[in-house]
Amino acid sequence: MLQDLYQELIVDHGKNPRNFRPIEHARSCQHGNNPLCGDRIILYVQHDDVIISDIAFQGEGCAICMSSASLMTQVLKGKSLSDSKVLFQHFHDSVVSGVAVDGAKLGKLEALLGVSQYPTRVKCATLAWHTLVAALDGNNEVVCTE
Ligand code: ZN
Hints:
Blueprint (H helix, E strand, L loop, with lengths): L1 H14 L12 E7 L4 E9 L4 E9 L2 H14 L4 H17 L21 H18 L6 E2 L2
Parallel strand pairs: 1-4
Antiparallel strand pairs: 1-2, 2-3
Helix pairs in contact: 1-2, 2-4, 3-4
The structure holds zinc ion.
């Protein structure tokens, strides 16, 4: 039952990604690539030194990549930079292991934990997040999951 709901959420966000737009004059802009699957995104993050005020993305990729990026932008808008990095770590570790790690508040992101059974899809699910960390760290090189 829960699996079905999660499946629907992924399909919905994959088909109709939220926050799918550029942000003009975004403070951070980062390209991310997952050559194994062909996923390519550009992530835009508007933030000051504390809070992410707006976050959006563009690009193309599989349903897992698109829905993960879409869900990520919904979850991170309004969050602090430090909370966002903690959430990245929790999400990453949870997706790799397939169960939410202790203390993780994943919410809708739990829909993606099923990809742990498919190691190549883990890279699809985490591409947006790796790209986010690079954007916040001010690393202007293309993020590659390879
Ligand atoms: Zn993919």
